Amino acid sequence: MRYRPITFERLAGELAERILATPGTPWVRVAVDGAVGTGSLAGALTDPLRVGGRPVLRVSAPDFLRPASLRYERGRHDPDARYTDWLDEGALRREVLDPLSPGGNGMVLPALWDAERDRATRLERVALPPGGVLIADGELLLGRGLPFELTVHLSLSAGALRRRLPEQEHWALAAFDRYEREVHPAEVADVVVRADDPRHPAVLTAAS
Predict the structure, then answer these.
(1) How high is the pLDDT of residue 206?
(2) How many Cβ atoms sit within 10 Å of the Cβ of residue 114?
(3) What is the structure's pLDDT at 204?
(4) What is the rounded CA–CA span in Å between residue 116 and residue 156?
């Protein structure tokens, strides 16, 4: 295996092509996973997918966090809590992924919880037509058994993660280290992108 250098624009185009060729249920659910940078890549996928004739809905994992009383039960800076307790995995599955499963009705809740204000968003469900693509971006998404047709992981070396993660978030480095050790995201993801330098990504490909 080797990493193939690629521009960010070409990366988005290649991923969009792969998504367009992925059989749906009849929807295609895509995860963009990583400690940083997932929102930028998820956003870049939107236009080429729509140009390809697919309706697109973006959902961000930070909008499906548990209330602060549950997230911070062991303190605000507990890396194990961030790893296991912050994401409301059941809500993400129930409100977003299951409605796009075989036999689902396509009605998706785009956000559940405003973590900054620590209250429900009270948003209405939106309809994603059959043939549509759901892009969910965020951290620590793999290894949970969540139903995605395609998973993309933005891989960072330990040094790059320390540089790119805001200093006030460095307490969470242990959570991402645990994720690497227990889930091995670069091995389980369908597509792996080395993102140490966001201006010069590289895609993991089979050696010729």
Answers:
(1) 66
(2) 15
(3) 94
(4) 27
Condensed to tens digits (0 to 9), the pLDDT of residues 131-187 reads: 999 999 999 999 999 999 999 999 999 999 999 999 999 999 999 999 999 999 999
63: Cα separation from own chain's centroid:
12
Q: How far is CA 159 from the centre of its chain?
A: 21
Which pLDDT belongs to residue 208? 43
Crossing angle of helices 8-20/38-51, nearest 10°?
60
Closest CA to 58 of 77, 45, 74: 45
Q: Running DSSP on this structure, what letter comes out for residue 202? A: E
SS3 letters across 137-165: EECCCCCCCCCCCEEEEEECCHHHHHHHC
Report, as ranges of residue numbers, the positions in the chain whose pLDDT lies below 50: 208
Beta partners for 87?
65
> Could you give the 3-state DSSP secondary structure of residue 17?
helix
CA distance 22 to 76: 40
Fill in the DSSP letter of residue 6.
-
Neighbouring-strand partners of residue 204:
3
Q: What tokens were used for 177?
A: 């280290």
Residue 205's pLDDT is 86
State the Cα–Cα distance between residues 15 and 18, nearest whole angstrom: 5
Answer whether the bond into residue 130 is a cis peptide, omega within 30°: no
At residue 52, φ and ψ (nearest 5 deg) are -75, 5
Rounded to whole angstroms, the Cα distance separating 203 from 208 reads 14
